[in-house]
Amino acid sequence: MTFSLIARCAATGAFGYAAATSNIGVGARLCAMAAGVGGVLTQHRTDPRLAPRGLGLLQSGCDAAHAIAALVASTPDHGWRQLAVVDAAGRTAHFHGARVKPAHGAAHGPGVVAIGNILANDGVPAAMVAAFESAGGVLAERLLAALAAGETAGGEHGPVISAALRIVTDQEFPYADLRVDRAADPIATLAGLWTDYAPWADEFVLRALTPDAARGG
After folding, report:
1. Residue 69: what pLDDT?
2. The CATH number of the domain where 129 resides is what?
3. Across the strands, what pairs with 177?
4. Hey, what's the torsion of the CAs at 106, 193, 53, 61, to 10 degrees?
5. Closest alpha carbon to 164 in 68, 9, 32
6. Which residue range is the domain that position 159 belongs to?
7. Which of 31, 82, 112, 146 has its CB 3.0 to 4.6 Å from that of 131, i.e. a possible disulfide?
């Protein structure tokens, strides 16, 4: 009952993910990312421990495929898990456990992978990747376009109530980390949050790195 994608921007090296689900607070559980390293998504019967573990594997030198394989091999309950990884070179990999409920699916493009479970149809991830690849704008805008396309393609069986977006660039803290924990239309609400946040995103980085040069309070 979740559809999501994770990607690396070839132009900037930034990483980002976006997700939506019919459970509350999706942004608290699904993803771990690090600048220059990559990112890991974990969902279905979500184990929040898996994404940080997968990120550690990437940091140790594993590529996306080897990180997935190591996670699966070291996870006794992997049959319930659905995973996706993008690494520092933009390589991607995914895993569906044998107990992941249908419809489920995955789709890959250059530097991007989308996954979903308990979907309205198994074409949702492919629609997300196609939208990501065709969308213009910065990474956050492309991820949001993909999330909206997933919903338009059918989304999941029930109505989504939460959504999340995170971007990491070249700092140890996120460039953006936006969450809609419960709303009637969380994907549109999330897009609105990004519209409001985007003009301030660089300023917030400046405040952290060189506060004397920052504007505002």
Report:
1. 98
2. 3.60.20.10
3. 166
4. 80
5. 32
6. 2-213
7. 146
> What does the buried/exposed string (b/e) look like for 145-168 if buried means 16 or more CB atoms within 10 Å of the residue's CB?
bbbbbbbebbbbeeebbbbbbbbb
First to last CA, the chain: 42
H or E segment to which residue 162 belongs: strand 162-168
The pLDDT averaged over each successive group of 10 residues in the chain (217 residues) is: 96 98 96 98 96 98 98 96 98 97 97 97 97 97 98 94 98 98 98 98 95 81
Return the pLDDT at 217. 62
Pairwise CA distance, residues 102 & 31, whole Å? 22
19 strand-pairing partners: 4, 164
Contact, 142 vs 7, CB < 8 A? yes
pLDDT at 58: 98
- Please tell me the total count of domains within the chain: 1
Q: Are 42 and 54 in contact (CB under 8 A)?
A: yes
CB neighbours of 139 closer than 8 A, spacing ≥ 6? 7, 9, 12, 14, 16, 167
Whether residue 20 is preceded by a cis peptide bond, meaning omega within 30 degrees of 0, is no
